[in-house]
Amino acid sequence: MLYSTLTAHAKRTALRERLATGDLLRFPGAFNPLSARLIEDKGFDGVYVSGAVVAADLGLPDIGLTTLSEVATRAAQVARMTDLPTLVDADTGFGEPMNVARTVQALEDAGVAGLHIEDQVNPKRCGHLDGKAVVDLGTAVQRIRAAVDARRDPDLLIMARTDVRGIDGLDAAVDRARALVDAGADAVFPEAMADLAELEAVCRAVDVPVLANMTEFGKSELFTARQLADAGARIVIHPVSLLRVAMGAAERALDSLDAEGSLVSQVPGMQTRARLYELLDYAGYARFDSSVFTSTGYGDSPA
Q1: Would you say the pTM of this structure is higher than 0.85?
Q2: Each residue's pLDDT tens digit, 192-237
Q3: Which of 40, 48, 74, 119 does the annotation list as catalytic?
Q4: Catalytic annotation, pick one of 12, 26, 37, 126
Q5: CATH, domain 8-240, list 3.30.460.40, 3.40.50.300, 3.30.365.10, 3.20.20.60
Q6: In the chain, which ranges are continuous DSSP H helix?
Q7: Structural domain boundaries of the chain?
Q8: Which residue in 31, 47, 50, 129 has its CB near the most CB atoms, within 10 A?
Q9: Is 203 annotated in the active site?
Q10: Is 251 a known active-site residue?
């Protein structure tokens, strides 16, 4: 009932313990708090909050238009709804190193287990679009150092994302990944790898967990969890997948409503009322309400 039964620190500790096993952890992207609960119910390892999804949910393109407060608010809404660790996309940290420090503490307060800071210029753009630009190595390192220095809970996972592969090639991505780990990053997110061999090269080059981004319609092929694990990845995100599926279903439903005058044809594909109530834990709320109202002396005036 209500929110997660675990503290943020407990989720952070659990994430680090799971990463230490060497298993591949699967983090589907939640497009709202209820979808985070569904991800947990289906047995996944964590929940991802994508900057692209936060932007799209606001009707905006993923070109650096969202603010720290918008991302932190959505991250908190998602994180409090699940016992799973939540990893959030913190874009470039929303500014200079001091802004990065504030971003880390705001997201720490939001209850996330980890976050990633990238090395694109401000304003950033989707990592699978052309025309990206990255900051110089010194600035990228400063961002990660600021993030590491700012966290108050040492178990908060600070991940460094680099987009340099799409600009200067794989060797530059490997070199930058190593430098970001040296700056204190707990994990690395090399964006837009061309194939498994490139991902494997990054995994071999660093001694921290590496994240693989499996986003549809992007520059990377969609590999299976087994392929990614064999390449050395330790986290895989599917950042926009559930939003795309949901919006695709919504568009088809609206087309049917317009063409047929009702949604009768779409009912078999809908989540049932019973299943929705199960996810929302209506029964738990009813038990709580019943126990309060049937407690001895509830509502009685003092003797």
Answers
A1: yes
A2: 899 999 999 999 999 999 999 999 987 788 999 999 999 999 999 9
A3: 48
A4: 126
A5: 3.20.20.60
A6: 8-20, 33-41, 51-57, 68-79, 97-109, 137-150, 165-168, 170-182, 196-205, 225-231, 241-260, 273-280, 282-293
A7: 8-240, 247-293
A8: 47
A9: no
A10: no
